[in-house]
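(Protein data)
===
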Amino acid sequence: MNDGKKDEFEIDERIQYTDHMSEIIKKAEREGHFDDLPGKGKPLKLRNDYMNPPEKQLYKTLKDNNFLPRWVELANEIDHLKVELQTLEGKERRKKIKEINKKIKAYNYACPPSLQKNKVEE
């Protein structure tokens, strides 16, 4: 019963997500609105009091053993592939884009929603 039309519930993966808040922040950075903030250039004093003790211990153990979550490994692989992509043309470039987009899809399923990436287009 498929007459070439998309099912009304099928997601079109070509839709690009635009994070409006990030765009506003980037514009403010370009215009210099953050240049005179107190503490600029100094290390942040981050606290992780929001974590419960078992979760805190888990992250400490992972960090101490140099273990990266799968989505972080995928992000590193994607970045490396994007650098390789810059030197390719034609069929090889299209093949590399497919590989990158496959990894981006896996990354987006594994990472926190706020860190998801858009697919690479030709």
Observations:
- Residues 90-110 form the longest helix (21 residues).
- DSSP finds four helices and no strands in the chain.
- The two ends are 33 Å apart (CA to CA).
